Amino acid sequence: MMENRRVMMNKTTNLLQLEEHMYPLVDVKTPNVFRNLFPYEEVPKIAFNDRIVPHHMPDDIWITDTTFRDGQQSRAPYSTEQIVTIYDYLHRLGGPNGKIRQCEFFLYSKKDRDAVEKCMERGYQFPEVTSWIRANKKDFELVRDMGMKETGILVSCSDYHIFYKMKMSRREAMEHYLSVIKECLETGVSPRCHLEDITRADIYGYVIPFCLELMKLMEEYKIPIKVRCCDTMGYGVNYAGAVIPRSVQGIIYGIMTHAGVPSELIEWHGHNDFYKAVTNATTAWLYGASGVNCSLFGIGERTGNTPLEAMVFEYAQLRGSLDGMDTRVITELKEYYEKEIGYHIPSRTPFVGDNFNVTRAGIHADGLLKNEEIYNIFDTEKFLNRPVLVAVSNTSGLAGIAHWINTYYQLPEERRVTKDQPLVKMVKEWVDHEYESGRVTVLTNDELTEVIAECCAKLDYDL
After folding, report:
1. What is the pTM of this model?
2. 16, 44, 229, 323: which one has the fewest Cβ atoms less than 10 Å from its Cβ?
3. Strand 190-195 relative to strand 150-154, pairing
4. In whole angstroms, what separates CA 356 from the centre of its chain?
5. What is the pLDDT of residues 432-454, one digit of tens each?
6. pLDDT (tens digit per residue) in 233-248
7. Are 236 and 280 in contact (CB under 8 A)?
């Protein structure tokens, strides 16, 4: 056995490595549900063995989108027009280098297919239109006939799913999945294998042996086969030395190193059940996955998916550049969702909430008025068309109120109000009266806009 294993040069470390593709399927008779880590009547446990794997950032990383698939499973369906409009926004956001690489769509209904056709008519190279279908030959042919090159296929990989949902053994499940994937390959369509519930799966006893079989099929058919690591329940953790199957870096390392799946064919799909969606997706990038799968504003099953807008800024922080992504489109999308779709984004949501760059504390407001870098994360006006705001309170003064009006209404230089104008003085009188009457909380945007509108009417003044 040792003589048949190849010695290869690792281009990242420039060291010779011995291939370790020696992971046969472990076909257990009873399911391994890692009850020591997932005792259902207790909070799940994070255990450590201090086995550290190396960073392996791919040469190229990107974002893929599931707004129209997983994102649509948790809300009222988008209309065809809304899907096409959002797709246009994503194309602009991803920029000329296509950093938003793909959008995945359902193909079940005529409305879904109409949306796909209209998006494909746009002729964009990126985001590429891809699908998610039921695993049968008829649907593979539908994908091919619609001119799509790739489709997602559900291949649940934990014993929770294999034994309890599918009522199969591991070998039966693997053979079933491989037969379905062969059907997909026979139609000339590239399969994207969604390894559902990977953070509760037997990584070395099932996932890696399965991925090894996928790589054999890829070699046979000369068609790319992607592996999507689906943290379906949000159990993944990014802590160094944590044990699999909860270790994100352990999963990526195993699939890449022991199953031989190249980075460009590995994708991470995470959920936010334990508030770890963003850090887990970033960790997947750091340890070898080229793709992270996201949805706009994190909209998805239960607590949602990895927010796409978050990973745009994670990308910029890791690479030192936006590589052509137009982040101002994020604000346009926020406004479209709120005004046209009627979706309310919580006010403190990073990058998109109404209050994400609003300073309320009096001492903070004083510092920000002197220099906005003190309390603003970056130039939010430049990157998001969202100038920093100082909330109005009893400590704001005329200057603070004038600043609020100028920034909230985004008044151009020639129309900006000053602290000695009648409008500002009238608003301050109202503010002073509020606090003299016993108020202790800051004023909301809705309150201020209503008062300002009344004052403008009295003064016959137009902002």
Report:
1. 0.91
2. 16
3. parallel
4. 18
5. 999 999 998 878 889 999 999 99
6. 999 999 999 999 999 9
7. yes
